[in-house]
Design brief:
By secondary structure, the protein is of the alpha/beta class. Helices cover 30% and strands 19% of the residues. An eight-stranded mixed beta sheet has the order 7-1-2-6-3-5-4-8. Helix 1 packs across helix 5. The longest helix has 11 residues. The chain is globular and about 45 Å long.
């Protein structure tokens, strides 16, 4: 395992905030169970808490503790595109932090096929937060160098690797209605 991943996983385990490449842009992430880490990301990004976050994982099992039971129809939708660059809004488990869900009863989640995300989540042993690496309202960053320039010492680790080939962030679909939200 690369030093890059080892450092990032240690940061996640100790409540840190990391940056890592995703399908289209760099993301900021943390342990989704740590309220102080979620708040740190909000502070770093100057993001409003009501927007909530996306959880990203290497497999659906990593997301299950955060979600309400998924019916057969919804599972078929997920199986058709995961792993892949589609984020779904799914009813959340009632134990999910209001900071994570944006005080909604749903949660945005994705099983990624990006090799670095898969490696990171597998090494960490679970899903992590994924929100674009940018200050709120600014363009999302696409390189580790740009992330370091903008965020400096406010991050605990930066995973250096290429972002995927998507031209824009992943689509977000409400699994209950099929409506594309982004």
């Amino acid at each position: 395992m690369s030093e890059n991943i080892i450092t990032a996983v240690e940061a996640l385990r100790t409540g840190g905030v990391i940056a890592y490449p995703t399908e289209a842009v760099y993301g900021l992430g943390c342990d989704p169970h740590k309220e102080t880490s979620l708040q740190r990301i909000l502070d770093i990004k100057h993001r409003e808490a009501h927007k909530g976050f996306i959880l990203i994982a290497s497999n659906q099992e990593q997301l299950e503790p955060f979600l309400a039971p998924i019916n057969t129809e919804w599972q078929q939708q997920l199986d058709a595109v995961w792993p892949g660059p589609v984020t779904f809004v799914i009813p959340a488990a009632n134990t999910v932090s209001a900071l994570l869900s944006g005080q909604r009863d749903t949660l945005a989640v994705r099983v990624s096929s990006h090799p670095m995300v898969v490696t990171l989540c597998d090494a960490y042993g679970g899903a992590i937060v994924s929100t674009s690496a940018n200050r709120s309202g600014q363009p999302a960053l696409q390189t580790g160098r740009d992330v370091r320039t903008v965020f400096g010492d406010s991050l605990d680790a930066v995973v250096d690797a290429d972002v995927g080939t998507l031209a824009s962030p992943t689509r977000i679909i409400d699994i209950r209605t099929g409506q594309q939200l982004r």
